Amino acid sequence: MHCPGCGQQQVSNETKFCSRCGLPLGLVSDVLAHGGYLPQLAELNQKKKSIWTRKNGLAFSLIWFLFFLFIMTPMWGILNVDRMAGASAILAIFGGLIMMVSSLIFLKSDKVVYPMQQQQMYPPPQPSYVMPQQPAYNALPPQQSVPVSAYQTPQAGSWRDTNDLQPTMSESATKLLEKDEFKK
């Protein structure tokens, strides 16, 4: 087994800590032994089933539609309450439609997502190659410097030589403004 932090090969799979970086390896060996999955986490993946699922929301909106449109509307019509019959038909159509759309948008699907099955446990993979030892850097790298004599002064007339060029702004080019000129 190799340490996931530094790549150091361990003496045995029962090693508790990495000898190089000190990473705790107890859970790493458990994960490798169970095929990349911790059985302690299985209970976290199992959630309680809820009544409010997308399928139940769609079924409720269909029952709502059928009840108010085909039962309540004719009942109000038989009782000669025309306003309630119309309201019941409108409530059936638009209420059922709103419940259907909201259940499609807001409610979760009832499909169960299973964690990795225990039957699919494979033996832990063995590395096909041995990771090379990383060199230990205990000091700074060797000094890399360029002596000053390697740099040459620019030739006369070169674009890097700007000593003989006229400055773009000089004292004679600047003029102080008088206070009267400010007032104009």
**Number of helices, counting only DSSP H or I runs of 4 residues or more:** 5
**How large is the share of residues in beta strands?**
under 5%
Q: How many DSSP-defined strands?
A: 0
Distance between the ends: 87 Å
User: So what's the overall shape?
Assistant: flat
Q: pLDDT under 50 segments (min length 5)?
A: none
* Helical coverage, percent range: 25-40%
- The average pLDDT value, as a whole number, equals 77
Radius of gyration (Å): 41 Å
Q: Can you write the helix and strand succession as a string?
A: HHHHH
Which secondary-structure class do the elements indicate? Answer: mainly alpha
Largest sheet: none
Please, could you describe this protein's structure?
There is one protein chain. Among the domains are: 1-41, no CATH class; 54-106. It is flat, with a radius of gyration of 41 Å. Helix 3 runs antiparallel to helix 4 (82-106). It is mostly helical and 184 residues long. It is built from 5 helices and no strands. 5% of the residues are buried. 36% of the residues lie in helices and 0% in strands. The longest helix has 25 residues, at 54-78.
Features:
184 residues, mainly alpha, 0% strand, flat
SSE layout and pairing:
Blueprint (H helix, E strand, L loop, with lengths): L25 H8 L8 H4 L8 H25 L3 H25 L72 H4 L2
Helix pairs in contact: 3-4
In short:
The chain is mostly helical and 184 residues long. It is built from five helices and no strands.
